[in-house]
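Aim 2, interim progress: modelling of the flavin-adenine dinucleotide-bound target.
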Amino acid sequence: QHQSKIVIVGGGSGGCSVAAKFVNALGKNNVTIIEPANKHYYQPLFTLAGGGLKKLSQSHKDMSDVLPKGAQWVQDSVAEFDPKNNTVTTKLGDVFKYEVLLIAVGLQLRYDDIPGLVNALDNYDNVGSIYSPKYVEQTYRAIQTFEKGNIIYTYPNSPVKCPGAPQKICYIHENFLRKMGKRNNANVTYNTSLPVIFGVKVYADALWKVAKSRNINVNLRTCLVEVHPEKNEAVFQNLDKPEQKFTVEYSMLHAVPPMGTPTPLKTNKDLANDMGFLTVDKSTLQHTRYPNIFGIGDCTDSPNSKTAAAVAGQCNVVFKHMRAVLDGKPLSLAYDGYASCPLVTGAGKCILAEFDYNLQPLETFPIRQDREMYIMYLFKKELMPFLYWNLMMRGYWNGPAIVRKLLHLGMKN
Ligand code: FAD
Ligand code: UQ1
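Predicted structure of the complex, ligand included:
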């Protein structure tokens, strides 16, 4: 059995940012990170790469170069959580005992939940998906080689990370087709399982305008349930009348998979809710039953939009509160649900959505953000990756709250 003051499960956006803060504060040999992957992905870049606006190779670095040097990296995955005994057991059978635990395992992609989809993605060039690095490049090739017909974009019937991405790729591709002079050959459709185009009203209004002005069909409550790639057919279900299914022929299909938390968390009824998400207090991010367990990022049940921007807003709260538990002090901070979604609507255009738990806009800049702007596109494409790799992964970025306060001169929030 191994012993570590702080154990962090998952070395993605959440796990790495908090680990870096601990190493900065406490020095070496206090933190163990359990993370199986060789590569650390900056996933927000997938959307741009799938539209040919960045290269996939710019989205990842070696895990060993990203995780903080002063932490111990165990390259293995957790197979079992035992919160009563303060231990986790890995796939290889090692047991780690902790004083405080951070669960940051993110969401898994469940492509195989949709019959025919894995076959379609693995064997057909006209099907893509920006959610997995495995399929990002073929997504761009699919739009480049498109000639004519129906192009369909989907949004699954499950919680997803970056709920804006399924439609961003639609707008980026539509814009690309215009530039290539092929727009008139395409009938572009976005089919979403959600009852709205976006959860925050001001941005939803702006996105409806974008979709209408660019002649994109949007169907709500419409869910991809099956793919027959040999016939280029996709089957959709009307979620309000589940008995209603219809088949559409496509020339190109972009599919977003259903998502869920990794099995060891999902199946642990002591830690997770019925949906498999880690139950945490939405302000303190402390587990609802185990005070020495915290959660961050996509795998928790806090009702914010699952984004790296939200992780930025959470990481300092989680770090300070884990420290408070170690020191026997009270929890003093509150996460407000901040999340952000840079809604890229084409090359050079982006609506920077920022909002809180109440789905009210919480904007960094003292100008209206519910419109397409070039500067926001530059932020998304150049500034965010820089912030992520150089500040956030090193423990020095807690989201834009400080910038917002400065720019609003203390007048707003
Ligand atoms: P992740 O960063 O996914 O990390 C989870 C880690 O846990 C992984 O490294 C995994 O290997 C590890 N793990 C899993 N199971 C285990 C286990 N059993 N044991 C140990 N380790 C385990 N966010 C934005 O803010 N803006 C955007 O524009 C944006 N666009 C996106 C576009 C796409 C296509 C995608 C896919 C995501 C996008 N996101 C965006 C979302 C953002 O990437 C995630 O919200 C963020 O990475 C969540 O961080 P996390 O730490 O919870 O999970
Ligand atoms: C952000 O902080 C962040 O984390 C690094 C992102 O992740 C990719 C974002 O997309 C955004 C928009 C923010 C918010 C930052 C600013 C400066 C508005």
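The domain at 2-107+261-327 is CATH 3.50.50.60 (FAD/NAD(P)-binding domain). The pocket of ubiquinone-1 (ligand 2) is lined by residues 44, 308-309, 312, 340, 342, 364, 384, 387-388, 392, 397, 399-400, 403 (CB under 6 Å).
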